[in-house]
Design a protein that fits this description.
The complex is a heterodimer of chains A (149) and B (118).
Chain A lengths: L1 H17 L4 H29 L4 H21 L2 H9 L7 H14 L5 H8 L1 H26 L1
Helix pairs in contact in A: 2-3, 3-5, 5-6, 5-7
Chain B lengths: L1 H24 L3 H17 L3 H8 L1 H4 L2 H19 L3 H27 L6
The chains are: A mainly alpha (149), B mainly alpha (118).
Chain lengths: 149, 118
């Protein structure tokens, strides 16, 4: 009796693992499609800017600025949050997610004042990103200075 | 057409990794962004991310790892031209465009939009 129960449990586990509808699988699929679409859109923009004789660096910056602008509009309309609920990491990981993390608290906290509300809370997530990004870039720069050149 | 498929694939996979991290480790999205920037920066410093960019195009540069990658490229270029001081200026210079755009658009958005009722 005990062995059949055990077998049943094992079987349940296996079903759970293999079932394509487990939330993590669906979440990953949503993230893959939505994130992939944002990046394909970025590629479209990149090609447009490259066609207009921007250098590669300039074109990449133009793409970032455009995507940040689009994300700001969607965030202001309250649409980015709705998208985010469905797409998960697909809308967090691209630069549009970074922009959302700046724009969203700026709107949310403006009632606490333009200095310590809007301006300060703007960097709630972007602050740590900039801090650790800068520190990592210094480390990379230092190592490159010492042994890379 | 092929480059769109590659951008879709690379960008999509980077997002899937983020999703797995969120689902399996309960990491907050802010921590994921920090991780991605640092990771992109380190991979850029090691010269690995360049290969990913060549293959994936915007699929590699649009995710936040691409932002970190740009920091690494910026700091190395600056060290080439300015020497030791480049360590202090390169990263921030590379980040300037993106950060300024985010600040500008966030300011505009905060002027015109009001928080949604939850």
């Amino acid at each position: 009796m005990q062995t059949t129960q055990k077998a049943q449990q094992e079987y349940d586990k296996m079903v759970k693992k293999a079932s394509p509808n487990s939330p993590i699988f669906t979440n990953c699929l949503k993230a893959f499609v939505s994130g992939g679409l944002i990046c394909a859109g970025g590629q479209l923009l990149l090609n447009l800017f490259l066609d207009r004789n921007f250098t590669e660096n300039e074109a990449a910056l133009c793409v970032s600025i455009t995507l940040i602008g689009i994300s700001a509009v969607l965030t202001a309309l309250g649409l980015y949050e709705k998208l985010g609920k469905f797409c998960g990491a697909g809308t967090i990981v691209p630069i549009t997610g970074f922009a959302n993390s700046v724009v969203s608290p700026a709107i949310e906290f403006k009632k606490e004042g333009m200095v310590f509300g809007m301006a300060a809370k703007m960097f709630l997530v972007a602050g740590p990103v900039i801090v650790y990004g800068t520190l990592t870039s210094m480390l990379v720069g230092l190592i490159y200075f010492l042994i890379g050149r | 057409m092929m480059e769109f498929a590659k951008a879709f694939l690379v960008g999509g996979l980077l997002c899937v990794i983020g999703q797995i991290l969120i689902d399996k480790t309960k990491l907050m999205s802010g921590r994921i962004l920090v991780m991605y920037v640092c990771l992109g920066c380190i991979l850029g410093g090691l010269g690995i991310y360049q290969t990913l960019e060549e293959f994936g195009g915007a699929g590699a540069t649009v995710p936040l790892t691409g932002f970190g990658f740009r920091l690494a490229e910026g700091v190395m270029k600056e060290v080439d031209s300015a020497g030791f001081l480049g360590i202090f200026t390169g990263g921030m210079k590379a980040a300037a465009g993106g950060v300024t755009a985010a600040v500008f658009f966030a300011f505009l958005a905060a002027l015109v939009a009001n928080p949604k009722e939850k």
